[in-house]
Amino acid sequence: VLLSRASFKAGALGGIKKARYTPNGGGEAIVVAVKVANSAEPMYSLETEREAYQLLEGSHESIGEYYGCIYEIGGTAPQAIVIEFFDPKDDWTDMFDFIVDTAPKLASKAATAATWPLFEQLMRCVRALHAKHVYHQDLKPENFMVRVLPTGKTELRVIDFGTATREPRSRRQLGSLSYVTPEILMGREYASKTND
Fold first, then answer.
1. How far is residue 144's CA from residue 156's CA, in Å, rounded to a whole number?
2. What confidence tier does 106 reach under pLDDT thresholds 50, 70, 90?
């Protein structure tokens, strides 16, 4: 059941819509994000994202949940993927907004206590990706969701695997310009691992 017609959040590869989903086997419906492909972009980005989520399933607590794909009848390329929804009502925010808005409001000790575990989670998460030979290729603060629990503990999830690759070396110009390696800017071959 689609809960909103308008995109909750729009990105370069498509929009995110909020929906209700009942897992296979029944049970209580949960709110999920449905990432719909931008018709102007190639469909391989959703296929790439689907493959990455399936390869990474259960490999680390900081990787967002994947629930499945939506296909056109008779189609083979996914038209949308169903993933974990990070509700701002549950204090989820992307890491960029967390750094700009939330961290400065915390007292110095509390900010350190909140941010150091995030850094450790981020590094363990990237290590888990690379252990499965998945290279995200667009790691940036906007692709990490963060929240601080009432206990003071922080949670982190990596999202948006639309540009992920399993190629250990590449010349593809991927990622957000502000965060890419110098090799990409110069058009040189690079190790996919170092672009993360």
1. 7
2. low
**Phi, psi of 28, deg, nearest 5:** -75, 140
Which residues, including other chains, have CB under 8 Å from residue 32's CB and lie 6 or more apart? 18, 19, 20, 21, 67, 82, 83, 84, 85
Sign of CA dihedral 100, 119, 193, 40: negative
Task: Calculate mean pLDDT across residues 51-69.
Answer: 90
pLDDT at 3 over 60: no
Buried b (16+ CB within 10 A) or exposed e, 42-56: ebebbbbbbbbbeeb
DSSP string, 9-71: EEETTEEEEEEEE--TT----EEEEEEEEPTTS-THHHHHHHHHHHHHTTS-TTB--EEEEEE
Give the number of other Cβ atoms within 10 Å of residue 179's Cβ: 14
- 128 contacts 120 by C-beta, under 8 angstroms: no
What pLDDT is recorded for position 20?
Answer: 87
Residue 21 has pLDDT above 90, yes or no: no
